[in-house]
């Protein structure tokens, strides 16, 4: 298995989404409904990435992890252990709900999964922003009171965004994404979201969306993460995020420049957020995401000025312990 592993996107309808993934990524979206998410790499019971080329075409990521996990992740990776990262594109035409994900130490008690995530802003309209982290002195009690009088937004930091920004959101941090952002989200393999406020919006079915106030308050009380800060850098190579669950490094490659990755080091995810590159016979363009297997050598060459994200640090069995 020496080729770049690419998978078929799984598109998700979202009330806050749009059709922007068609124009931004040059893809054909299904139907006419608002598409908020494209799941690019996922190994979950309810959603499975399916290979699109090479010897893994038609195979799910779960099948590959079960039968070729040693090649993908390393020699000791258990066959029944899911792929630990979920990668998705977000088309945030409207503001997302104000929400939180449960910290690892209380997630089982709440019946959920922890979810630390990173947002890379690939495109931002003028005035776009993200909301992230409670302001100093705001605790769960004060936040609960603000929910009652519809002033919760004023208690959360608002961070204006531009293309190239990156923000690491630990489990337990209150957050929302404003409309006008196109974001690549790289996260723990989790789909647990506790909504606490949704701006009075109705769902796609015309009914109010479910809120999870008590779970959200418990998550806030258990949170020990520092306040998030945007990473904004013009450096050729910069670490955008580094946490227990993963590390993300952005590389700027001029046309003709290359990066090499050696077999036997670790599994990696490569995401193209600008330009065009080749890996062997594969041509990669904006929006492509895929897996660089543990057991293979890779050489990535830019055929135009390019921006790529390389995610690693997720294949250690020690990291995957609860």
UniProtKB/TrEMBL annotation:
Residues 5-110 form the Phosphomannose isomerase type I catalytic domain. GO terms for molecular function: mannose-6-phosphate isomerase activity; zinc ion binding. Its cofactor is Zn(2+). GO terms for biological process: carbohydrate metabolic process. Zn(2+) binds at residues 101, 117, 175. The keyword Isomerase applies. Keywords: Isomerase, Metal-binding, Zinc. Gene3D superfamilies: Jelly Rolls. The keyword Electron transport does not apply. Its EC number is 5.3.1.8. SUPFAM superfamilies: RmlC-like cupins (SSF51182). Binds 1 zinc ion per subunit. The active site is at residue 195. PANTHER family: FRUCTOKINASE, TRANSCRIPTIONAL REPRESSOR MPRA. This is Putative mannose-6-phosphate isomerase GmuF. It comes from Lacunisphaera limnophila.
